[in-house]
Amino acid sequence: QVQLVESGGGLVQAGGSLRLSCAASRSIFSDNVMGWYRQAPGKQRELVALITPGGSTSYAAAVKGRFTISRDNAKNTVNLQMNSLKPEDTAVYICCAALTLWGQGTQVTVSS
């Protein structure tokens, strides 16, 4: 069974940092693009960052330079290090595999 399980969300003050992790079943992780999306209340889901099996990355303009996506192929996990957080980063962050499979999401709240 394919599973994506996120962890690491929480409440942080503006300027702070959080690290999100997504554990994936091996069958989906090893050969696929992994990514993080986010969805704020009343807004559409938007891409945050992607990482290919080879480690190439891409970021949304709003997070570039502040967020870093990485993958641990030995542990089948993808991580999102979020620094210099802003209140507008508040959203449910959702792990994605192969651009088609989704986790349940983890809440990130940034207070001003």
Give descriptors for this structure.
112 residues; mainly beta; seven-stranded mixed β-sheet; four-stranded antiparallel β-sheet
Please outline what is shown here.
It contains 1 helix and 11 strands; from the N terminus they run βββαββββββββ. It is mainly beta.
Write up what this structure looks like.
With 112 residues, this protein is mostly beta strands. β5 and β6 form a beta hairpin.
Tell me how many strands there are: 11
Q: Major beta sheet, specifics?
A: 7 strands, mixed
Mean pLDDT: 94
From the N-terminal CA to the C-terminal CA, the straight-line distance is 40 Å
Poorly predicted tracts of residues: none
Order of helices and strands: EEEHEEEEEEEE
Q: State the share of residues found in helices, binned by percent.
A: under 10%
What kind of oligomer do you see?
A: single chain
**Percent of residues in beta strands:** over 45%
Structural class comes to mainly beta
Spatial extent as radius of gyration:
13 Å
Shape: globular
Number of continuous helical runs: 1
Could you give the topology of this structure?
Elements: E1 4-7, E2 10-13, E3 18-24, H1 26-29, E4 34-39, E5 46-51, E6 57-59, E7 67-72, E8 77-82, E9 91-97, E10 101-102, E11 106-111
Parallel strand pairs: 2-11
Antiparallel strand pairs: 1-3, 3-8, 4-5, 4-9, 5-6, 7-8, 9-10, 9-11
